[in-house]
Amino acid sequence: MNKKQKKLLTRILIATALMILLAFIPVEGIVRFACYLVPYVVIGHDIIKKALHGIKNGKMFDENFLMTVATVGAIIIALLGKGDYVDAVAVMLFYQVGELFQSYAVGKSRKNISELMDIRPDYANIEVDGKLEKVDPDEIEVGSIIVVQPGEKIPIDGTIIEGVSSLNTSALTGESIPKDVKAGEEVISGCINLTGVIKIETTKEFGESTVSKVLELVENASSRKSKSEDFISKFAKVYTPLVCYAALALAILPPLVKMIFLGQSADWMTWIYRALTFLVISCPCALVVSIPLSFFAGIGGASREGILIKGSNYLETLSKTKYVVFDKTGTLTQGVFEVNDVHHNEMEKEKLLEYAALAESASSHPISKSLQRAYGKELDRSRVHDIQEISGNGIIAKVDNDTVAAGNDKLMKRLNIEYNNCHSVGTIIHMAINGIYAGHIVIADVVKPQSKDAIRRLKRTGVVKTVMLTGDAKKVAEQVGRDLGLDEVYSELLPADKVTQVERLLEQKPAKGKLAFVGDGINDAPVLSRADIGIAMGTMGSDAAIEAADIVLMDDDPSKIAKAIAISRKCLRIVYENITFAIAIKLICLLLGAVGIANMWYAIFADVGVTVLAVLNAIRALFVKKI
């Protein structure tokens, strides 16, 4: 409990003790009023203050106003000898108990978020004259060398240039097992260095690092409201003044009808008491509190699993997912390409690899990197000129005095060069030197170990179709599709073709179903934006993909998609349970209150009791079951 919650609990205990004490003290008249006014002020002074503030600012129709009017009215009725002060104090007391439960539940939900916020680094170490100096991470430029000691957070994304260590990545990825790292490996900010001292060359500015992006996503999540939350907000704005006017009518009209038309006693106190009871019953606390809390708890529970959801509107959309469309490279596969074979003609194997690596030396594409690694020697980029990259085809470049074309069969057809088909499964890089076919290089990507399980889990959650879109060759794509059990595979696609395919699938999907696209590359950003829900891989994913996505998986594990869907569906189920339960109880008690069956104790249950039950139900969204 925080300081504010402890203070409220103390007030509740004092007011309860005073009420119990007064039950055994036989006082009457003005003395009784003065005695019960003490616990009433102790427990309700802040509610009355908020109500008066709302009236002053023209925003009177809220739960504070309803509670104040109802309890002050109950005290006046008791003063006139027609009621009991216990009713007024009890309403305030139990309302504050409900507020305490709500505050505790919100605090519980915020715990995961606050733990995540603890990843923000306060400083970065730089070495000056053999000594470490702490500086603001914002001051560190790209390419700087920082030192991270055991127990410290990595402040900025970069590459380890010296040292070996283990990292705690749990705050970002939800993975409890430490990750071993060494020189040459990339590391992301927000992880905690556990063992050795490491030196890191920064690759991003602090504002663009993973930790900053994650915190920005979390901080903005609450501003994106779901349709359910918007409905409740609009409902409360109309509902609250409506019930106030209804209560006023209940207090005035029946006595007037009895007095004028029936010639009977007006019995004002009875109807005013019913109207006050009606007001307490009508308070929409259960809906206004529990619905946002349910979504907040769902987002908090997901973040603990390394799934960052940018807003409750995306959580609601995700729950309706029926089609899941995947990019291949870096999403279902590791994006780690390796040269498996070189099929060459007259040119030597090493020379063919050298030309391929030089032609691709300006590209950061994983296939280009694999060619450079396979060559294994330092590249002299001054030998390369006139580089022309043809999207979806390959590269044409001048290497020394030779024109080198490296790409797929589309490039060979484009250049009218006859090429040999390869029966090996993998990405085939055809090579032509000065317009003459020189052979081809076979490159294979490695499927992620979690990918097959990810597709199986999605089927279990009720996803009706899984699709893969890739720019890879048909043979490679179909092999991956068969291995993973995908329903449909579309290959040899340009970025624009992926958007077209997603738009076609959007037309095919069930009317009430949604389509999710999962990708990681910069060329996936348009498709992520076009899908109903975009899911990006956070560790390996590009900044553009993370920016365009609605949900980010911090550990690049595709099996987390099924877990995210399960979390969203559980959250929505809780929301609908709370809406149905709260409205049903309210309507029944309002009807009973209007006809005089329900007294103020029924009202307390209809307001506070329902709120507490709804809040306890909402907390369940925090807990995530294994899928």
Please characterize this protein's 3D structure.
The chain is α+β, with helices and mostly antiparallel strands. The protein has 4 domains: 3-114 and 223-296 and 570-622, no CATH class; 124-155 and 157-203, Calcium-transporting ATPase, cytoplasmic transduction domain A (Distorted Sandwich); 312-332 and 448-549, HAD superfamily/HAD-like (Rossmann fold, 3-Layer(aba) Sandwich), CATH 3.40.50.1000; 335-445, Calcium-transporting ATPase, cytoplasmic domain N (3-Layer(aba) Sandwich), CATH 3.40.1110. 51% of the residues lie in helices and 19% in strands. The protein has 20 helices and 22 strands. The protein has a 7-stranded mixed β-sheet, sandwiched between helices. Strand 16 (427-433) and strand 17 form a beta hairpin. Helix 9 packs antiparallel against helix 19 (560-594). It is elongated and about 115 Å long. The relative contact order is 0.11.
Summarize this entry quickly:
The protein has 20 helices and 22 strands. Helix 17 links the parallel strand 20 and strand 21.
List keywords for this structure.
alpha+beta, Rossmann fold, Calcium-transporting ATPase, cytoplasmic transduction domain A, seven-stranded mixed beta sheet, six-stranded antiparallel beta sheet
Cross-sheet strand order for the largest sheet? 10-22-21-20-11-18-19
Q: Rounded to an integer, what's the Rg over CA atoms? A: 33 Å
The coarse overall form would be: elongated
Low-confidence stretches: none
Helix content: 40-55%
**Overall mean pLDDT score?**
84
Could you state the oligomeric state of the chains shown? single chain
Number of domains: 4
